[in-house]
Automatic annotation (TrEMBL):
Keyword Oxidoreductase on entry: yes
Organism whose genome encodes this protein: Nocardia mangyaensis
Sequence segments annotated as region (Disordered): 238-261
Designated name of the protein: Cyclohexanone monooxygenase
Keyword Protein biosynthesis annotated: no
Any one Gene Ontology molecular-function term assigned to this protein's record: oxidoreductase activity, acting on paired donors, with incorporation or reduction of molecular oxygen, NAD(P)H as one donor, and incorporation of one atom of oxygen
Length: 540
């Protein structure tokens, strides 16, 4: 147990929010402005969540800065100046710190405090929240703003603990940075984090070995500096941008081509892909509305991508290894890079294909594959996260009848609207499984969820009711609906972290709601308007 936290607030509050990332910060602001007493418990020593921890070189958002920002305060929108089209981690963190200061949020956040247990008192319907500092709180409402990507995945590779050099995980990069000049560096993992870090690491390292198990699709960010004129135009256009984003599939204002991919001429299709390529980022997977449902449409996108990528890789044998052959494009999150593929043209970079020569073990000096030994000074694990459920699963959350959330979710997460769980009254999970989650712009998604929870709490107050609890039949129907929607797409064909497929032992369930951000927003609004149908409203 750590020494007791210096921050001392009331032991009893209306709401405990777990996590001071994008969702947690806005939750604090919103609930507090509704007159509720709120404490935010945060494991890190600062605000920012995923942007606090993920400081690896090259870390950058794959949603445009102007859209990846809060919409709840017009003055905030107008005063903040983004310097780049796609912001890098330091700028996003600076923005979130600015928000924390501007709305005086820090006084209700307890940093360095990791929640260990969240236990329901069935008599009073209050939650007791325990932490690793010894600090304990009770609350009527608990809001989990722990984020879908906050529990790092460290692979169980034999001998990793015997490695004598430095081991770094992309999601826990040292805050003071790392100088890799002249070093032999190994990177395990070629997902979004690896793909962003590799070009930067290659510039510093004397030699860089990239250990790739599965190739991914990456689209260049096409990042640019924003001019004052760009910013003025964006700020003047905010109202329209936000409106389009809220109604869109993924929470950004860019609309898919109005027709299916194969309904247009080859020339028009190519022009559409070129336009998205120039936009850069993750939205390439949504150029056409049927790209993630029709294999033939998907193939047109995949072939366009392949042509672009092969054109910048000098060695065709290396290109063969970098072109994925195991999943349709977009069924894993498309990565966003700057000079990723070109990095393999450098003399100091070597791609090691783990499909043909897997890692056998790690020893004190480096990595043994079945074919060779690679001496290494620093080993970078870009091996991702126990995503979607991992951050919730590491807390002992105990609801009615002493049943834990992990027991309730052992076959996969079971929620109503992503927000509520049977047996866990007044416990709300934000931007997690059962909601669009990582398929949408996380900032607007966080606002949507927090606003919904704030309205729900207001509803209880007007009814003098004490709790809202998802009904079992509503949970079952929502789980079925999410599964049916996912089954209607190509998304279940990839072994992605959307399905928990990257973590041994996790049930294979497609976790995000795939029906679109705008559609989802309508559904949860209708539920609220219908007096929270599907929830039991528990009277005092
Ligand atoms: P990802 O996308 O889960 O990528 C993790 C990478 O690590 C991926 O290439 C994995 O290969 C690889 N990996 C994991 N374990 C191993 C072992 N044991 N051996 C070799 N390679 C391994 O995580 P990221 O952090 O890059 O990105 C997560 C999200 O953050 C991203 O989608 C954005 O939304 C932001 P595999 O594919 O499993 O063969």
């Amino acid at each position: 147990m750590k020494p007791s936290s210096p921050a001392q607030g009331p032991a009893e509050v209306d709401v405990v929010v777990v996590g001071a990332g994008i969702a947690g910060l806005y939750a604090l602001h919103k609930f507090r402005s509704r007159g509720l007493t709120v404490r935010v418990l945060e494991a890190g020593d600062g605000v920012g969540g995923v942007w606090y921890w993920n400081r690896y070189p090259g870390a950058r958002c794959d949603v445009e800065s102007v859209d990846y920002s809060y919409s709840f305060d017009e003055a905030l929108q107008q005063e903040w100046d983004w310097s780049e089209k796609y912001a890098a981690q330091p700028e996003i963190l600076a923005y979130l710190e600015h928000v924390a200061d501007r709305f005086d949020l820090r006084r209700d956040i307890e940093f360095g405090t990791r929640v260990t247990d969240v236990v329901l008192d069935e008599q009073t319907l209050r939650w007791q929240v325990d932490t690793d500092t010894g600090r304990a709180l009770t609350a009527r409402f608990v809001v989990l703003a722990t984020g879908p990507l906050s529990n790092a995945n460290t692979p169980a590779i034999e001998g990793l603990d015997t490695f004598a050099g430095r081991v770094l995980h992309t999601s826990h990069w040292p805050h003071d940075g790392v100088d890799l000049t002249g070093e032999r560096v190994g990177v395990i993992g070629t997902g979004s984090s690896g793909i962003q870090a590799i070009p930067c690491l290659a510039e510093q390292a004397q030699r860089l070995h990239v250990f790739q198990r599965t190739a991914n699709y990456s689209v260049p960010a096409g990042n640019t500096l924003l001019t004052e004129q760009d910013r003025r135009a964006q700020k003047a256009d905010y109202a329209r941008r936000r409106q389009l984003s809220m109604a869109s599939g993924g929470g950004s204002p860019h609309q898919a081509h109005p027709e299916p991919a194969l309904a247009v001429s080859e020339q028009e299709r190519r022009a559409a892909y070129e336009k998205r390529w120039a936009l850069g980022g993750v939205l390439f997977s949504k150029t056409f509305p049927d790209q993630l449902t029709d294999p033939a449409a998907n193939d047109t996108a995949r072939l366009f991508w392949e042509e672009k990528v092969r054109a910048v890789i000098d060695d065709p044998r290396v290109a063969d290894l970098l072109v994925p052959g195991d999943h349709p494009i977009g069924t894993k999150r498309i990565c966003t890079d700057t000079n990723y593929y070109q990095t393999y043209n450098r003399d100091n970079v070597e791609l090691v294909d783990l499909k043909t020569t897997p890692i056998a073990r790690i020893d004190a000096e480096g990595v043994h594959t079945t074919a060779a030994h690679y001496p290494i000074d620093t080993l970078v694990l870009a091996t991702g996260f126990d995503a979607m459920t991992g951050s919730v699963a590491r807390m002992n959350i105990v609801g009615r009848d002493s049943r834990t959330l992990n027991e309730a979710w052992h076959e996969g997460p079971k929620t109503y609207l992503g927000l509520g769980m049977t047996g866990f009254p007044n416990l709300f999970n934000l931007t997690g499984p059962g909601s669009p989650s990582v398929l949408a712009n996380m900032v607007l998604h966080s606002e949507l969820h927090v606003d919904w929870v704030a309205e729900a709490i207001g509803f209880l107050e007007t009814r003098a009711a004490v709790a809202l609890e998802a009904r079992a039949d509503a949970v079952a129907a929502w789980v079925d609906e999410c599964a049916a929607r996912a089954a209607g797409t190509l998304m279940t064909q990839a072994n992605s972290w959307y399905l928990g497929a990257n973590i041994a032992g996790r049930p294979r369930v497609f976790m995000p709601f795939v029906g679109g951000f705008g559609v989802y927003g309508q559904i949860i609004a209708e539920v609220a308007a219908a007096q929270y149908k599907g929830f039991d409203v528990i009277e005092a």
